[in-house]
Write a structure and sequence with these properties.
Radius of gyration: 42 Å
Largest sheet: 5 strands, antiparallel
Shape: elongated
Number of helices: 6
Structural class: alpha+beta
Oligomer: single chain
Number of strands: 30
Distance between the termini: 123 Å
Strand content: 35-45%
Length: 548
C-alpha cells in the first residue's frame, strides 16, 4: 500500500510539474500617455523559472523599468494550481500606435497587444493622470561653464508607499542639487496633487549639441484591493514610473578673442562698504572694507579670489571669504563676501588702487568689467595713542660712536709696531660700529613686532573675532616688555589694569560660558589701546621710543 501511494504521489507531482499550457499578457490601461508608466503583466499557468521571460524585445519601442516576479500555488479538491506572474513597468517616449510583440515562456507564446500612445493634452478620458513630472530649464542656449538651472516637479494624486528619483543626465556636465526638496500642493483640473520640487545646477564643460535627460521616478502607489472578501483583504500596491521630457541643449565655446579668467554670467557686479561709515579715519584704529562680488549663472566655486593691494603705510588683515548660493527668479545666484581690516601706521592721504573683475555677458554676448574705482582715503593723527610708523630702513639708522681716549707711548717704535697699532684701532672701531647697529636693529625689530601684534589685535577686536583675539593677545602682552606669561590666567594675575581684566573676563564668558553669546570687541579694544599708550609713555621716559 505504501509503495502504491508513493507511486501515485510521484505521478501526481510529475504531471503537475510539466503542466505549462498557457501564457497570457495584459496591460493595465490603453491608451497610455507619453512619459507615464503602464504595467505589463505576463502570467504562466505553472511554476516555472523566474528568468524564463525575456523582455528585451520591448526595448525597441518602450523604456523598460523594473520587473517583479511572484509565484503562487493553491490546491482545491486535491487539484493543484500553480502560476508564475511577471509584472513589468513600461514607459512610451513618443505618441503613436505600437505593438507589444509576442513573448515566449518555455516554448509557450503570448498574443501581441496593440497599444495607443497619446500626449497628455490629448487625454479626453475621465481618468486623470495620477503621476507626472514637469520640467523648467533656465536656458537652452548657453556657453561652456555657464550655469543653468533645471527645476523638476513631481505631481502625484495617489498615496505613495515608496519611491526614488534619479538625477538628470547631460554628457560632459557637472550636475549638483541645489538646496533641499520642497513640498507643496496644487489643484489641476479639479484634482488635488501633492508636489515635490527639486532644483539642479548644471554646468556644461564642453561645447556641442546635447540632450538633457530628465530624472526618472520609480516607486509604488497604493491601489484599492481586488480581493472579494474585504475582511481578509490587505492594502495592495502598484508599481509606477514616470519621466520628464528630454531637453535639447546647445553649448557654445569660449569666444576666441576673450582674455582672462572665463566668467560667463547674465549679471555680475562688485561693490564695497566701509565700516564705520565715516569720511576720515585715524591712525591705529582699524577700519573694515567689505567687498562683495555677486554673479548670476555662476557657482560659488567659479567666483574669483578677491584680493586688495595697498600702498605703503597701510596694513591689511583679510578674513576668510564667505560664500553664498541661492535661487532668484529661477536663476542661480552666487555671492562672495570678504572683509579686509585696514590699519594705518601714520597719517596722510592714501590712494587705493581700483579693483577690476573681467567677465562675459551672456545676454549681450559682450566682454565687460566690474570695477571698484580707485579712491583716496584720509588718515588723521590720533591724539589718544602714539603714532605708529613703519620700521625705518637700515640706512636711516646713524650709529653712535663712543669717543675713544688712548695715549700711546712709543719709544723708538719701529714701522711694524705702528702697523699693528693701527690695525688694532681699526678693529676696535669696527666692533663698536657693529655693536651700535645691532643694538639699533634689535630695537627696530622689537618695535615692528610690537606694532604687528598690536595692530592685529585691534583688527580682531574690530571684527569681533574672538579666535584671532586669543591668537594675538598673549604675544601682544609679552611684546610690551611686561612680565612674560603663557596663559590667559597668568596675564590676568600679572596686571592691575581693571578695564583690561574686565574686558578679558567678558571675552571668556562669551566664548566659554554655559550659554555662549555673540562677543563684541569694543571694550577690549579700548582697554588694549590704553595699556599700549601707558606702556609707550613709560618706555619713552626711559629713553626707548615705540616710534623710532
Amino acid at each position: 500500500m505504501v509503495k502504491v501511494l508513493t507511486a501515485l504521489l510521484t505521478l501526481f507531482i510529475t504531471v503537475n510539474a510539466y503542466a505549462l499550457t498557457e501564457v497570457t499578457a495584459t496591460i493595465d490601461k490603453n491608451p497610455v500617455i507619453v512619459n507615464e508608466s503602464f504595467v505589463l503583466t505576463v502570467v504562466a499557468n505553472d511554476d516555472v523559472d523566474t528568468n524564463a521571460l525575456d523582455t528585451s524585445a520591448l526595448m525597441q519601442d518602450f523604456i523598460v523599468g523594473r520587473t517583479s516576479v511572484s509565484s503562487q500555488t493553491s490546491m482545491v479538491n486535491f487539484k493543484t494550481t500553480r502560476t508564475t506572474r511577471w509584472t513589468t513597468v513600461l514607459i512610451a517616449r513618443k505618441a503613436g500606435n505600437y505593438t507589444i510583440p509576442p513573448l515566449t515562456v518555455d516554448g509557450v507564446t503570448t498574443k501581441p497587444i496593440d497599444v495607443k500612445v497619446i500626449n497628455a493634452s490629448e487625454n479626453n478620458t475621465d481618468t486623470q493622470q495620477t503621476l507626472f513630472i514637469t520640467t523648467d530649464i533656465s536656458a537652452k542656449d548657453v556657453y561652456v561653464q555657464q550655469q543653468l538651472t533645471l527645476t523638476i516637479k513631481l505631481h502625484f494624486a495617489a498615496e505613495l508607499k515608496r519611491g526614488s528619483l534619479t538625477e538628470p543626465e547631460l554628457e560632459g556636465a557637472n550636475i549638483t542639487q541645489v538646496g533641499k526638496d520642497k513640498e507643496g500642493e496644487t489643484i489641476i483640473n479639479g484634482i488635488r496633487y501633492r508636489v515635490i520640487e527639486r532644483t539642479y545646477a548644471i554646468s556644461p564643460q564642453k561645447s556641442g549639441e546635447f540632450t538633457l535627460k530628465s530624472p526618472v521616478f520609480s516607486g509604488e502607489i497604493m491601489v484599492p484591493s481586488t480581493r472579494r472578501n474585504s475582511f481578509l483583504s490587505f492594502a495592495e500596491t502598484k508599481p509606477v514610473s514616470v519621466i520628464g521630457e528630454e531637453i535639447p541643449i546647445n553649448v557654445k565655446a569660449i569666444p576666441t578673442n576673450y582674455q582672462g579668467t572665463w566668467l560667463p554670467s547674465e549679471l555680475l557686479s562688485i561693490h564695497q562698504e566701509w565700516q564705520p561709515k565715516v569720511t576720515e579715519f585715524k591712525v591705529g584704529e582699524p577700519i573694515t572694507r567689505v567687498i562683495t562680488l555677486t554673479a548670476a549663472g555662476l557657482s560659488e566655486e567659479q567666483l574669483p579670489e578677491l584680493e586688495m593691494s595697498l600702498p605703503a603705510g597701510l596694513k591689511v588683515y583679510p578674513d576668510q571669504a564667505e560664500l553664498h548660493t541661492g535661487m532668484n527668479n529661477n536663476r542661480l545666484v552666487s555671492q562672495k563676501v570678504r572683509n579686509f581690516a585696514i590699519v594705518a601706521n601714520k597719517p596722510g592721504n592714501y590712494q587705493l588702487p581700483e579693483i577690476v573683475i573681467p567677465w562675459w555677458n551672456t545676454v549681450t554676448n559682450e566682454y565687460q568689467e566690474a570695477v571698484i574705482p580707485a579712491q583716496i582715503i584720509t588718515i588723521a593723527a590720533n591724539t589718544e595713542q602714539p603714532e605708529f610708523v613703519l620700521p625705518p630702513n637700515e640706512a636711516q639708522i646713524t650709529p653712535t660712536q663712543t669717543p675713544i681716549e688712548k695715549t700711546v707711548y712709543v719709544e723708538k717704535a719701529s714701522i711694524l709696531q705702528w702697523v699693528f697699532l693701527a690695525l688694532w684701532l681699526l678693529t676696535l672701531l669696527a666692533w663698536l660700529i657693529t655693536y651700535q647697529k645691532q643694538k639699533s636693529t634689535q630695537k627696530t625689530a622689537v618695535v615692528s613686532k610690537v606694532n604687528d601684534h598690536y595692530l592685529a589685535l585691534l583688527a580682531a577686536c574690530k571684527k569681533h573675532n574672538s579666535e584671532q583675539v586669543f591668537t594675538h593677545l598673549l604675544p601682544w602682552y609679552n611684546s610690551l616688555n611686561l612680565q612674560s606669561v603663557s596663559t590667559i590666567s597668568q596675564l590676568l594675575a600679572s596686571t592691575n589694569n581693571q578695564p583690561l581684566i574686565a574686558a578679558i573676563e567678558e571675552l571668556q564668558l562669551a566664548k566659554y560660558g554655559q550659554a555662549p553669546i555673540a562677543w563684541q570687541g569694543d571694550n577690549l579694544a579700548k582697554a588694549i589701546q590704553q595699556v599700549n599708550k601707558t606702556q609707550s609713555t613709560q618706555q619713552q621716559n626711559n629713553g626707548f621710543q615705540l616710534n623710532p
